Amino acid sequence: MRLWDPDTGRQIRDRLRGHTRSVWGLAFHPSGHLLATASRDMTVRLWDAATGQPVGDPLAGHTDHVRAVAFHPDGHLLASVGDDPAVWLWEIGGNRAVARATRRRVEGLRATLATIRGERDALRRERDELAAQVRKRPASPALPSPKRLPTPGSAVRSMARTLIGHTHAVCGAAFHPGGHLLATTSFDQTVRLWDPAIGQNVGQPLTPHPGGAVWVTFHPGGHLLATVGHDQMVRLWDVTTGQPVTTLTSHTDLVYGVAFHPGGHFLATASDDRTVRLQPVPDRSGNPT
Predict the structure, then answer these.
(1) C-beta of residue 228 within 8 angstroms of C-beta of residue 256
(2) pLDDT at residue 147 tops 60
(3) Residue 15: its pLDDT value, please?
(4) What is the structure's pLDDT at 132?
(5) Are 226 and 185 in contact (CB under 8 A)?
């Protein structure tokens, strides 16, 4: 990775080295002090934007390529998505990040721990029975070593997913400006909205792009959601109702990127047709503004 001065166009840091495979996504923390990167090496890394040095250990949890990262507007959460297909939420605290346990993950963890406790109790009963047999038979041969009991800690480390719902690679993620929604896009042809506080789906999945939904972004005002995908279309959605507002059809090939101007009046899109297009953002009724 390289850092550049947008005013001069000059590189301001040596290349940031650490990932062992291609880097596919990156995002700055809202305060600007951290840079998060997503890589095919299945990790997310945090970097000090001022020095270019890594912050903490790589965030490991994904079991396949990581495609994108996005910070919550207030900076306390980082979302990462990839080919697993999992949506991970990481809690950012100072210079460290730890996996944030969503309600679903906590319920799964409780079930796992209950299973472990049941296995542990069964093994203890087996051990006690074997010990009783030894006491009754002084000349009996040596018994095999007792089985090693699984520990809750090992089960916790084996938990690999947080937000579960997509059935194919997850390509993009974006937080609502208000922070109460997280949107994700996937090759399963759906766009999902999540409540990041509890890790649950909000409403029904949107199915806007045959062939796969690639990227997503919220309007700065929070009332519109833009999605792009393999069908060459740019679709705008009403965030409150989940209903389509309009479809923009200017590209002639796959559309991979979409971004709103900070003022909210224009929308930029990037495509395999080798063009970047700027278009006015329509109002809620789909009329040009």
Answers:
(1) yes
(2) no
(3) 81
(4) 65
(5) no
Token pair for 238: 């009403």
**Cβ contacts of residue 48 below 8 Å, gap of 6+?**
33, 34, 35, 54, 55
Residues in CB range of 154: below 8 A, 6 or more apart: none
Binning the chain into helix, strand and coil, the percentages to the nearest 5 are: 15, 35, 50
Q: Look-up: residue for tokens 């559309």?
A: 255
Give the lowest-confidence range in 38-42, 94-98, 224-228.
94-98
Instruction: Give me the long-range contacts of 16-20 (CB less than 8 A, separation at least 24).
Output: 16/47, 16/52, 16/54, 18/45, 18/54, 18/58, 19/43, 19/45
Residue 269's DSSP bridge partners are 258, 277
* pLDDT of 110 above 60: no
- The dihedral built from the CA positions of residue 101, 40, 253 and 210, taken in this order, carries a sign that is negative
Tally Cβ neighbours within 10 Å of residue 103. Answer: 12
Which helix (H) or strand (E) segment is 118 a member of?
helix 103-136
The pTM of the full predicted model, rounded to 2 decimals, is 0.68
Residue 116's closest CA among 61, 144, 156?
Answer: 156
Measured distance CA(111)–CA(107) in Å, rounded: 6
User: In the β-sheet with 66-71, what is the strand arrangement from edge to edge?
Assistant: 66-71, 77-82, 87-93, 96-99
Separation CA 194–CA 83 (nearest Å): 18
The reported pLDDT for the residue numbered 123 is 57
Which candidate, 176, 238, 179, 231, places its Cα nearest to that of 208?
A: 231
